[in-house]
Every structure is written in structure tokens, then in C-alpha cells.
């Protein structure tokens, strides 16, 4: 049975999908709050719903208060395992919550959601599953205080508190790019110049091992997913002409995406300036060529098979802002989804 369980887990990992979730961005947590709006700071009673703000019991909590009407459905922020948790350990009416230990893209993370009545107290959940309903805050120490209804959301990485604000809202983290690299793990130092490509990130992108109908393991090329929302233009050759002759070597292929949605451009004067563009090198598109709209996480291509070249098991991704290189390492790795200052 143990062997069958291992094979089953492996099969779950290798099944090719047409879409993956954004790496680092958390979906809707409370029913009716589609953009994960936070409680104001200061609130009507001078408490604060922002990260590190003073709460009703005078504590400064490293978490955020997500607006949530009483009895609203509360959803899992990511795939993981839930356990019941009492945030205050005082048996008050709001002393209920859940702890979600992350899996997949969120390995190493723990989310704690408080002021909710769980509908289950253990087991595995998937991103977006209903895990409980928000509680009324009528039993707080100052019941006459006037504040916006909310739940408390805290996030930890390797046991250390993390500000979840930009994981919840205005999230600018990219999606997973290579099928076999869930966490966008780097193959070399971050944000470096690479000869023939440009300035960006070399990501690991090894072949995928999958179980055949005959019960044997076989490898195939990994799929490539769109890192941003955008307009897909198809293939381009990143390396320039050499002595008037175009270089057709295997790795001289790439995918070009013009940003759309929150990654789009704007009109300045008579010019339309694209804010973001993404180039993926050592990859070839697998969808229909020509301009079309794609969404972040959509399958758009495959890694190239270039066994004679040193770059064969990696891909290179480059993000530009208004045509200029910019260091978006935190957005690629999903560590901090706040857009860095850009000029």
C-alpha cells in the first residue's frame, strides 16, 4: 500500500495542467470582499486593521484585519493541512480559528485565520475551499466600540511573521513559469546578465518524469506557463544576426508577452507605453501564433530540447518595465508581492 501511495502522489505531481495559480498571491478570503480589503486604520474606535496595528486589547499584532461581515463564508488561502487553533485561549466567543500549513507553492508557509467558526477541524484543503464562517465580534472587551466587522489573518514563513498585505491585495507576484519548478527556484544568482539573453533570472526547468500505461517511468519536456497577464505575440529569436547570418541554434528561441490587466501600459501624450513585458528564453510556444490575450498561469509553451547545450535544463526569464530592466526578484520568488519603486 505504501508503494501505491507513493505512485499516486507522483501521479498527482506530474499530471499536465493548462493553468496554474499565481505564485505568492492569495485569492479571496471572505465572501463578498472580492479584493481582500482591510479594516481601516485608524478605525472609528482608533484601533487599526493594518499589519502591526493596535487592536482592541491594546496589543500590536503582526497580522491584518480583512473586512468580513458576520456569518460570511471564509475560504482557504492556499492548499494545505488545517488544524484547529484558539488565538486567545480564553474561551471567549471569538476564540476560534484555523491554522493552515501550506503545501505545493506554499511549502514553508503557515496561515492563521482567527474570529471564525470552522466547518471542519482537520485534514487537507485546497485553495478556495470553504473552511468556516466569520463570527460576530459582540463579545470583545469593549462591546460599545464601533469598528468595521473583520477577521484576523496572519502569515508566517519558516516560523517568522510575514506582512501579508501585498499577498492579499494589489499582488504583483508572477506565476509559476516552468511545470517542474513549483517555487520558481533559481539555477544561479538572482537578477544577472546572461550572455546572449539579457538581464533576468535563470530558473530550473528539468524534464518531467511520468508514469506510462505500461507502468514504466518516462521523461517529457516540461510545459511553460505565462508569468503575467498579457498579449501573446508568439516566437522571437533573442540572439542577433552574426555577420548577417541569423543564428538558428536550439536555444535561440523565446516567447514574448506584452503586459495586460494590472501588467498593462498607459497612454502618455500621443504614445502608448507598455509598462511590463516578459521574455522567456529556451522555450517555444505551443498555442496558436499571433496576438491573443492570455492570463497569468496559462500554459503557453514547452521548454526546448537542446541536449548539446549547457542551458538545456533551464529557462531564462526577463521582465522589463517601460522597456528597461528592473529587479523583480521578490516577485519572481513570491517572497514579497509589492511592486518595488519604479521610475
How does this structure look, described?
The chain has 343 residues and is mainly beta. The chain has two domains: 18-168, Glucose Permease (Domain IIA), CATH 2.70.70; 192-333, Glucose Permease (Domain IIA). Helix content is 6%, strand content 34%. Residues 1-15 have low confidence and may be disordered.
Write the layout of secondary structure elements.
Layout: H1 2-14, E1 64-67, E2 73-75, E3 80-85, E4 97-102, E5 109-114, E6 116-118, E7 122-125, E8 130-134, E9 150-157, E10 160-162, H2 165-168, E11 192-194, E12 198-204, E13 208-211, E14 217-220, E15 223-225, E16 230-236, E17 254-259, E18 266-268, E19 271-273, E20 276-281, E21 283-285, E22 292-294, E23 299-303, E24 314-321, E25 324-325, H3 329-333
Antiparallel strand pairs: 1-9, 2-8, 3-4, 3-7, 4-5, 5-9, 6-8, 9-10, 11-12, 12-24, 13-14, 15-23, 16-17, 16-22, 17-20, 18-19, 20-24, 21-23, 24-25
Helix content: under 10%
- What is the distance, rounded to the nearest whole angstrom, between the alpha carbons of the first and last residues? 58 Å
What global shape is seen? elongated
* Structural class by secondary-structure content: mainly beta
In terms of DSSP E residues, the strand content is 25-35%
| Major sheet | 8 strands, antiparallel
CATH third-level topology of the largest domain: Glucose Permease (Domain IIA)
Count of DSSP-assigned helices: 3
Named at the architecture level, the CATH assignment of the largest domain is Distorted Sandwich
Unreliable stretches covering 5 or more consecutive residues: 1-15
CA radius of gyration: 23 Å
Give the number of DSSP strands. 25
Task: Give the CATH H-level superfamily of the largest domain.
Answer: Glucose Permease (Domain IIA)
- Write the element-wise H/E pattern from the N-terminal end onward: HEEEEEEEEEEHEEEEEEEEEEEEEEEH
What's the CATH C level of the largest domain? Mainly Beta
Protein name: Leukocyte cell-derived chemotaxin-2
Signal peptide: 1-22
Family: Belongs to the LECT2/MIM-1 family.
Domain M23ase beta-sheet core: 61-164
Amino acid at each position: 500500500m505504501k508503494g501505491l501511495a507513493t505512485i499516486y502522489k507522483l501521479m498527482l505531481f506530474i499530471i499536465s495542467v493548462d493553468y496554474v495559480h499565481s505564485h505568492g498571491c492569495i485569492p479571496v478570503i471572505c465572501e463578498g470582499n472580492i479584493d481582500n480589503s482591510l479594516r481601516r486604520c485608524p478605525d472609528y474606535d482608533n484601533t487599526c486593521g493594518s499589519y502591526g496595528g493596535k487592536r482592541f486589547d491594546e496589543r500590536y499584532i503582526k497580522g491584518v484585519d480583512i473586512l468580513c461581515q458576520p456569518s460570511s463564508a471564509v475560504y482557504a488561502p492556499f492548499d494545505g493541512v488545517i488544524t484547529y487553533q484558539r488565538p486567545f485561549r480564553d474561551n471567549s466567543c471569538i476564540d476560534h480559528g484555523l491554522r493552515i500549513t501550506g503545501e505545493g507553492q506554499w511549502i514553508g508557509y503557515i496561515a492563521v485565520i482567527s474570529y471564525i467558526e470552522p466547518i471542519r477541524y482537520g485534514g487537507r484543503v485546497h485553495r478556495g475551499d470553504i473552511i468556516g464562517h466569520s463570527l460576530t465580534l459582540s463579545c470583545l472587551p469593549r462591546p460599545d466600540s464601533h469598528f468595521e466587522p473583520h477577521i484576523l489573518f496572519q502569515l508566517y514563513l519558516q516560523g517568522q511573521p510575514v506582512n501579508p498585505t501585498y499577498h492579499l491585495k494589489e499582488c504583483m507576484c508572477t506565476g509559476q513559469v516552468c511545470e517542474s519548478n513549483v517555487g520558481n527556484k533559481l539555477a544561479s544568482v538572482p537578477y544577472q546578465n546572461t550572455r546572449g539573453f539579457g538581464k533576468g533570472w535563470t530558473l530550473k526547468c528539468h524534464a518531467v518524469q511520468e508514469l506510462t500505461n505500461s507502468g514504466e517511468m518516462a521523461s517529457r519536456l516540461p510545459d511553460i506557463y505565462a508569468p503575467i497577464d498579457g498579449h501573446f505575440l508568439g516566437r522571437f529569436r533573442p540572439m542577433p544576426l552574426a555577420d548577417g547570418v541569423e543564428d538558428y541554434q536550439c536555444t535561440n528561441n523565446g516567447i514574448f508577452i506584452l503586459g495586460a490587466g494590472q501588467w498593462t501600459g498607459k497612454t502618455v501624450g500621443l504614445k502608448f507605453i507598455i509598462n511590463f513585458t516578459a521574455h522567456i528564453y529556451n522555450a517555444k510556444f505551443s498555442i496558436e501564433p499571433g496576438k491573443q490575450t492570455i492570463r497569468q498561469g496559462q500554459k503557453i509553451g514547452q521548454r526546448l530540447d537542446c541536449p548539446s547545450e549547457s542551458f538545456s535544463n533551464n529557462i531564462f526569464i526577463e521582465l522589463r518595465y517601460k522597456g528597461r530592466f528592473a529587479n523583480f526578484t521578490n516577485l519572481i520568488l513570491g517572497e514579497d508581492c509589492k511592486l518595488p519603486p519604479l521610475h
